[in-house]
Predict the 3D structure of the following.
Amino acid sequence: MIAASAFRRYASHMNSIDSLQTLATRLAEFVDERDWDQFHNPKNLAMALTVEAGELQEHFQWLHADEAESLTPEQREAVALEMADVLMFLVRLADKLGVDLLAAAERKIELNREKYPVEKARGRATKYDRL
């Protein structure tokens, strides 16, 4: 029998997979309607992703940590839209390269578990090669 919390994580994971696949499909349709696929090679998508990440950072530039955690509703909406741009370019890039983002994230979490063991890394912002 599956524990309730494990089932919720599994169900959430399945919903995320469906959502990412749906988003990838919707983005591909959007791009196809505009004949933009010719511009969506991995290099251009990676560059667009970093540009959008920079635009996201602009919202936090010069803010103190407490200000960054207490955004106004208008600021939060602007940040959400920039986050959406980052997500959409990342999903588009993954789609073009045939990368399963959720599977890659799971692998990366496991690699980070090995690089940052709790007994060495807890409460520290130290890079793994200096722990």
About this structure: The chain has a mean pLDDT of 91. The chain has six helices and no strands.
